[in-house]
Amino acid sequence: MSSPLVFIDGDQGTTGLQIHERLRGRTDLRLFTLAASERKDPRRRAEAINACDIAILCLPDAAAREAVNAIVNPAVRVIDASSAHRTHPDWTYGFPEMAPEQAARIANAQRVTNPGCYPTGAVGLLRPLVQAGLVPANYPLSIHAVSGYSGRGRAGVEEYEGQDAVSPPAFQVYGLELAHKHPPEIQQHAGLAQRPIFVPAYGAFRQGIVLTVPIALRQLAPDVDGATLHACLAHHYAGAAHVHVLPLHESSVLKHLDPQVLNGTNDMHLSVFSNGEHGHVLLSAVFDNLGKGASGAAVQNLDLMLTRQ
Question: Which intervals hold domain Semialdehyde dehydrogenase NAD-binding (predicted)?
Answer without folding.
Answer: 5-106
